[in-house]
Amino acid sequence: MGLFSFLKNAGAKLFKRKKEEVTVPEEAEKTHEDNLEALRSAVADLGIEVKDFFVDLQGETVIVFGEVNSQSDKEKIVLTLGNVEGIEQVDDRMTVLAPEPEATFYEVKKGDSLSKIAKALYGDAMKYPLIFEANKPMLKDPNLIYPGQVLRIPQL
Which residue ranges does the record assign to the BON domain (predicted)? Predict the structure, then answer.
Protein backbone atom coordinates (compact mmCIF):
# COMPACT_ATOMS: atom_id res chain seq x y z
CA MET A 1 0.00 0.00 0.00
CA GLY A 2 2.63 2.59 0.94
CA LEU A 3 2.45 5.89 2.76
CA PHE A 4 -0.85 7.14 4.22
CA SER A 5 -1.50 10.65 5.52
CA PHE A 6 -3.65 11.49 8.53
CA LEU A 7 -4.66 14.62 10.43
CA LYS A 8 -1.99 14.99 13.09
CA ASN A 9 -4.22 16.85 15.55
CA ALA A 10 -7.16 14.41 15.43
CA GLY A 11 -7.45 10.92 16.80
CA ALA A 12 -7.14 8.80 19.88
CA LYS A 13 -4.97 10.26 22.60
CA LEU A 14 -2.55 7.37 23.18
CA PHE A 15 0.61 9.35 23.82
CA LYS A 16 1.28 10.68 27.31
CA ARG A 17 3.25 13.77 26.29
CA LYS A 18 4.03 15.79 23.26
CA LYS A 19 7.62 15.52 22.15
CA GLU A 20 8.08 19.32 22.43
CA GLU A 21 7.60 19.02 26.20
CA VAL A 22 10.49 16.56 26.61
CA THR A 23 13.93 18.14 26.96
CA VAL A 24 16.04 15.54 28.78
CA PRO A 25 17.44 12.86 26.38
CA GLU A 26 16.79 9.98 28.80
CA GLU A 27 13.23 11.19 29.32
CA ALA A 28 12.76 11.53 25.55
CA GLU A 29 13.85 7.91 25.04
CA LYS A 30 11.45 6.70 27.75
CA THR A 31 8.61 8.71 26.19
CA HIS A 32 9.47 7.25 22.77
CA GLU A 33 9.34 3.70 24.18
CA ASP A 34 6.06 4.46 25.99
CA ASN A 35 4.58 5.76 22.72
CA LEU A 36 5.73 2.65 20.84
CA GLU A 37 4.16 0.47 23.51
CA ALA A 38 0.90 2.43 23.23
CA LEU A 39 0.88 1.81 19.46
CA ARG A 40 1.62 -1.90 19.92
CA SER A 41 -1.16 -2.14 22.48
CA ALA A 42 -3.65 -0.40 20.16
CA VAL A 43 -2.91 -2.98 17.45
CA ALA A 44 -3.07 -5.86 19.95
CA ASP A 45 -6.52 -4.62 21.05
CA LEU A 46 -7.77 -5.26 17.52
CA GLY A 47 -7.30 -8.98 18.04
CA ILE A 48 -5.77 -9.38 14.59
CA GLU A 49 -3.05 -11.98 14.18
CA VAL A 50 0.12 -10.36 12.78
CA LYS A 51 3.15 -12.49 12.09
CA ASP A 52 6.54 -10.77 12.64
CA PHE A 53 4.82 -7.57 13.81
CA PHE A 54 7.14 -4.59 14.21
CA VAL A 55 6.29 -0.93 14.65
CA ASP A 56 8.62 2.06 14.78
CA LEU A 57 7.98 5.75 15.32
CA GLN A 58 10.07 8.34 13.51
CA GLY A 59 8.83 11.79 14.37
CA GLU A 60 5.18 11.89 13.33
CA THR A 61 5.44 8.83 11.07
CA VAL A 62 4.66 5.26 12.14
CA ILE A 63 6.42 2.51 10.20
CA VAL A 64 4.71 -0.87 10.43
CA PHE A 65 5.91 -4.31 9.30
CA GLY A 66 4.27 -7.72 9.51
CA GLU A 67 2.23 -10.33 7.71
CA VAL A 68 -1.55 -10.56 8.00
CA ASN A 69 -4.16 -12.89 6.56
CA SER A 70 -6.35 -10.34 4.75
CA GLN A 71 -6.35 -6.91 3.16
CA SER A 72 -9.02 -5.76 5.61
CA ASP A 73 -6.79 -6.73 8.56
CA LYS A 74 -3.95 -4.73 7.05
CA GLU A 75 -6.16 -1.69 6.49
CA LYS A 76 -7.55 -1.84 10.04
CA ILE A 77 -4.01 -1.83 11.44
CA VAL A 78 -3.01 1.14 9.26
CA LEU A 79 -6.11 3.06 10.34
CA THR A 80 -5.65 2.21 14.01
CA LEU A 81 -2.08 3.53 13.91
CA GLY A 82 -2.98 6.58 11.82
CA ASN A 83 -6.01 7.60 13.84
CA VAL A 84 -3.81 8.54 16.80
CA GLU A 85 -3.34 12.16 17.78
CA GLY A 86 0.18 13.26 16.81
CA ILE A 87 0.53 10.80 13.93
CA GLU A 88 0.74 12.40 10.50
CA GLN A 89 1.68 9.40 8.35
CA VAL A 90 1.74 5.61 8.40
CA ASP A 91 4.38 3.91 6.27
CA ASP A 92 2.75 0.55 5.56
CA ARG A 93 5.29 -2.19 4.86
CA MET A 94 3.01 -5.12 5.71
CA THR A 95 2.27 -8.07 3.46
CA VAL A 96 -1.00 -9.93 2.97
CA LEU A 97 -1.28 -13.72 2.62
CA ALA A 98 -4.55 -13.67 0.65
CA PRO A 99 -4.67 -10.44 -1.39
CA GLU A 100 -8.09 -8.96 -2.13
CA PRO A 101 -9.27 -5.61 -3.51
CA GLU A 102 -8.30 -2.63 -1.40
CA ALA A 103 -10.97 -0.59 0.31
CA THR A 104 -10.95 3.16 -0.13
CA PHE A 105 -10.31 5.48 2.80
CA TYR A 106 -12.56 8.38 3.74
CA GLU A 107 -11.71 11.27 6.04
CA VAL A 108 -14.68 12.21 8.23
CA LYS A 109 -15.75 15.84 7.91
CA LYS A 110 -17.72 18.00 10.32
CA GLY A 111 -21.41 17.06 10.19
CA ASP A 112 -20.78 13.58 8.77
CA SER A 113 -22.54 10.47 9.99
CA LEU A 114 -22.11 6.91 8.76
CA SER A 115 -25.48 7.09 7.01
CA LYS A 116 -24.55 10.38 5.31
CA ILE A 117 -21.24 8.84 4.16
CA ALA A 118 -23.06 5.70 2.92
CA LYS A 119 -25.54 7.86 0.98
CA ALA A 120 -22.73 9.84 -0.65
CA LEU A 121 -20.53 6.84 -1.50
CA TYR A 122 -23.04 4.03 -2.06
CA GLY A 123 -26.17 5.98 -2.96
CA ASP A 124 -28.03 4.39 -0.03
CA ALA A 125 -27.94 5.71 3.55
CA MET A 126 -29.14 2.35 4.86
CA LYS A 127 -25.82 0.75 3.86
CA TYR A 128 -24.10 2.48 6.80
CA PRO A 129 -23.78 -0.89 8.68
CA LEU A 130 -21.30 -2.00 5.96
CA ILE A 131 -19.03 0.91 6.87
CA PHE A 132 -19.51 0.30 10.59
CA GLU A 133 -18.67 -3.42 10.27
CA ALA A 134 -15.64 -2.65 8.09
CA ASN A 135 -14.25 -0.43 10.84
CA LYS A 136 -14.81 -2.70 13.85
CA PRO A 137 -13.28 -2.95 16.39
CA MET A 138 -11.90 0.58 15.86
CA LEU A 139 -15.49 1.87 15.98
CA LYS A 140 -17.49 0.77 18.98
CA ASP A 141 -20.64 2.74 18.14
CA PRO A 142 -21.87 3.92 14.70
CA ASN A 143 -22.69 7.32 16.20
CA LEU A 144 -19.19 7.97 17.55
CA ILE A 145 -17.11 9.28 14.67
CA TYR A 146 -15.19 12.56 14.64
CA PRO A 147 -13.85 15.02 12.05
CA GLY A 148 -10.40 14.01 10.84
CA GLN A 149 -10.92 10.32 11.54
CA VAL A 150 -10.15 8.07 8.57
CA LEU A 151 -12.49 5.17 7.85
CA ARG A 152 -12.33 2.09 5.59
CA ILE A 153 -14.99 2.12 2.89
CA PRO A 154 -15.34 -1.43 1.53
CA GLN A 155 -16.25 -2.07 -2.07
CA LEU A 156 -19.80 -3.32 -2.69
Answer: 28-98
The architecture CATH gives domain 104-153: Roll (3.10)
Q: List the domain boundaries for the chain.
A: 2-98, 104-153
DSSP 40-55: HHHHHTTT---EEEEE
Report d(CA 40, CA 19) in Å as an integer: 19
Whether the full predicted model's pTM is greater than 0.85, yes or no, is no
Collapsed DSSP state (helix, strand, coil) of residue 6: coil
Q: What is the pLDDT of residues 27-54, one digit of tens each?
A: 777 789 999 999 999 999 999 999 999 9
97's enclosing H/E stretch is strand 89-98
DSSP three-state, residue 84:
strand
Written as one letter, the residue type at 56 is: D
Total number of residues shown for the chain: 156
Nearest to 83 by CA among 128, 136, 138: 138
Compute how many other C-beta atoms are within 10 angstroms of the C-beta atom of residue 140: 10
